[in-house]
Fold this protein.
Amino acid sequence: MKDEGMSKGLIFGFLAGGALGAILALLYAPKSGKEFRSDIKVKSDELLTEAEKQLEIAKEKAKVLINDGKKKSEEIVGSAKEKSNKILQDAEKLYENVLDKTTKVVNTGKEKIELETERIKTSVKAGVDAYQESKNA
């Protein structure tokens, strides 16, 4: 940005200085009106040509800056995509691990409940059988 301001100032200073110098040179030169107008036309054509050259240089610099900006933005977008994909992969792995652990805990709990249920059924049956025997005895 600082270089752009300096370049613009340099171009403006060059053009203004050239125009002022040309005008002063023409004003102090002892020439006829026709020669004077001809000199003004030549100098203005020279200044216009120089201004066009400077404008083309500025356009080229702008193109380079724009292309550099595009490349940087593409790099940033690519990097962001890679990072977001990595985060998604990590999240999927974490989800799978949690799901696996939860499934194991649930299955272990089911097994314990089934064992306890079977033990209680056996105890109740033994109690009923013992009651039946004592009743029959």
Summary: The radius of gyration is 46 Å. The chain has one domain: 2-136. The first helix runs from residue 2 to 28.
